Amino acid sequence: MITGGISTVATLTPPVSISLENEKNPWLAAAARFDEAAMRLKLDDGVRKILATPARELTVNIPVQLDDGRIEVFTGYRVQHSLARGPAKGGIRFAPDVTLDEVRALASWMTWKCAVVNIPFGGGKGGVICDPRLLSDAELEKLTRRYTAEIFDFIGPERDVPAPDVNTNEKTMAWIMDTYSMHARHTVTGVVTGKPMALGGSRGRPEATGRGCMMVTLKALARLGLTPETSRVVIQGFGNVGGMAARLMSATGFKIVAIVEYDGATYNPKGLDIAALERHRKETGSITGFAGGEDMDKHEAMFLECDVLLPAATENVITSQNADRIRCRILCEGANGPTTPLADEILAAKKVFVIPDILANAGGVTVSYFEWVQDREGYFWNEQLVNSRLQEIMDESFDAVVQYAGAHRVNNRIAAYMLALDRVVQCLKLRGIYA
């Protein structure tokens, strides 16, 4: 099913407020923040209608023959929120709890994220409802390739450029790139980012999101008169984002006092040895039972007193029900949508310095942009150049958001949305409405 233009679905109307009943709906959360930013910018109704709804939504049903001969049908989505600034950009996730509302929200966040760091992409996102843990490698490849074939007309280097997300990786991107290339009848490396190096991937891409989180955290520390050596950090999530942030921040001098995962947490007030913890998890499959720390309840670990809290796992971990227990000075959102709008109000009252997700975790899409540029040029950069250009963009974007917050007397999140909206609206007005 394809829909386009202005949707008439009721849930796509940006709400004025969020209630306890719908607090965890990611699309409503994204819409509420959009609505506030649009109101403060005094956007006219026509522009608001364009940006309040995705430009395109595609739903596909994907038949896959499983290893035992059975045929299963999976549902997949691809949403393009905005193409005003360039091709859509956004990951593809495989998870049992994927919903169209979630994909809509993530696509809109990508629009704002790309605009905040001022790279020439719009926002897109994809997802397939499945549990990858229950599928073999061969089944995942079949699923990925058929999904790619179904969305073939939607994606491409000039149209929509997917990337890895939850439960997808560079192997998944290689399958997508190959499938797309087979249909196009020539090799198209620029159709996805986050690829293996041998297929046109970029140096520095695996570390980019975690590195970007560290970069903006360092900017926040300097603003608050703190140093890495005196800063205690709690990180939720030890995957690509959280694990990489932990490794890089530890090497920079931060004291990582706790790591929180889905199956537990480990805590050491003197600082965890991140390299040793990585070895322990590789050997045991868990961060619990680590000799260099003490096991702790995963929910309680989130409320440890610290200087920096970095949620880097899933959405809706900080809500109106627990935000009052947060004890950090800086909240750096490595995950997409970890904080609900109702929780924002509580954090503001506690004077927590929030680095919003559309800024904090934008290092990944920034280096994805670099990868796309390198693929199109056919010329690849060394890692030092990748990291230096990432540093420049993250620093400039942090300063722009903070300055916007001060000028408009809003919190950092609404400032980031306002800055992004301003940039997207400028492109819309320059392009006009084709009729």
Protein described:
With 435 residues, the protein is α/β, with parallel strands linked by helices. Among the domains are: 54-199, Leucine Dehydrogenase, chain A, domain 1 (Rossmann fold, 3-Layer(aba) Sandwich); 208-360, NAD(P)-binding Rossmann-like Domain (Rossmann fold, 3-Layer(aba) Sandwich). The protein is 43% helix and 17% strand. The strands form two sheets. Strands 10-9-8-7-11-12-13 form a seven-stranded mixed beta sheet. Helix 1 packs parallel to helix 3 and helix 4 (137-150) crosses helix 5 (170-184). The longest helix is centred in the C-terminal third of the chain and has 26 residues, at 383-408. The radius of gyration is 21 Å and the shape is globular. It starts with a strand and ends with a helix.
Concise account of the structure shown:
This protein is of the alpha/beta class and about 425 residues long. The protein has helices at about 25-40, 45-50, 100-115, 135-150, 170-185, 210-225, 240-250, 275-285, 300, 340-350, 355-360, 365-375, 385-410, 410-430; strands spanning about 1-5, 55-65, 70-80, 90-95, 120-130, 160-165, 230-235, 255-260, 265, 295, 310, 330, 355.
Query: Major sheet, described briefly?
Result: 7 strands, mixed
CATH architecture of the domain at 208-360: 3-Layer(aba) Sandwich
The named CATH superfamily of the domain at 208-360: NAD(P)-binding Rossmann-like Domain
The proportion of residues in beta strands is 15-25%
**Shape summary:** globular
Class of the domain at 208-360 in CATH?
Alpha Beta
The percent of residues in helical segments reads 40-55%
**Gap between N and C termini, in Å?**
24 Å
Question: What is the name of the CATH topology of the domain at 208-360?
Answer: Rossmann fold
Would you report the number of β strands? Answer: 13
Rg, Cα atoms, Å: 21 Å
Q: How do the SSEs run, as a string of H and E? A: EHHEEEHEHEHHEHEEHEHEEHEHHHH
- Low-pLDDT stretches are 2-16
How many helical elements?
A: 14
Question: Strand order of the main beta sheet, please?
Answer: 10-9-8-7-11-12-13
Mean pLDDT: 94
Which structural class fits the helix and strand makeup? alpha/beta
